[in-house]
Amino acid sequence: MTGSRAAEVLELLARHGRTLAVAESLTGGLVAAELTAAPGASVSFRGSVTAYATELKQRVLGVDGTLLAERGAVDPEVARQMAQGVRGALGADWGIATTGVAGPETQDGQPVGTVYVAVAGPGHVDGERPGKVVALRLNGDRSEIRRESVRSVLDLLADELIANERAKDTEQNGGN
After folding, report:
1. SS3 letters for 36-92?
2. Stretch 73-85: mean pLDDT, rounded?
3. Structural domains in the chain?
């Protein structure tokens, strides 16, 4: 599936002594399973929260209850807050999250294939950089949507880790 991407992000995290926590909804633990399938995952992977029920997103991950009541669980800001919340809940440097509709029916007024993946890490704080969210419109059956969501959130994390690494290199080299 995406095993090499999982190994890549874990290697990037380990190289800098950083840790990762995962908040999952539609993927139901698939992201965590992908990460833990990689040898040496325990060096950087702290754990995960599969908050499938909407109230758990609020109670366990700290997602704003008004936001959930007004927009539902399938929303970009919900994904962002899930990533931030799991970071805090599990004491990790980086947090990633998935929320969306895998089907077969719509949810919260959102069509099947609507997915939001998010990342929050060092520097991703309210007011500065509150994290990054990517909106996806995926095709396929339930299984395909879930697999593509796993791939997409790991790609997003890898991109952020690489960008973060480049920014640190630039700082250390005096902007050259």
Report:
1. HCCCCHHHCEEEEEECCCHHHHHHCCCCCHHHHHHHCCCCHHHHHHHHHHHHHHHCC
2. 97
3. 3-172 (3.90.950.20)
Burial of 15 from C-beta contacts in 10 A (0-12 / 13-18 / 19+)? exposed
pLDDT of 157 over the 60 cut:
yes
Measured CA to CA in angstroms, residue 22 lies from 34, 70, 114 at distances of 11, 24, 19
> Global pTM?
0.93
- Mean pLDDT for 153-169 is 88
Contact 108, 99 (CB under 8 A): no
Mean pLDDT, the chain, whole residue set: 92
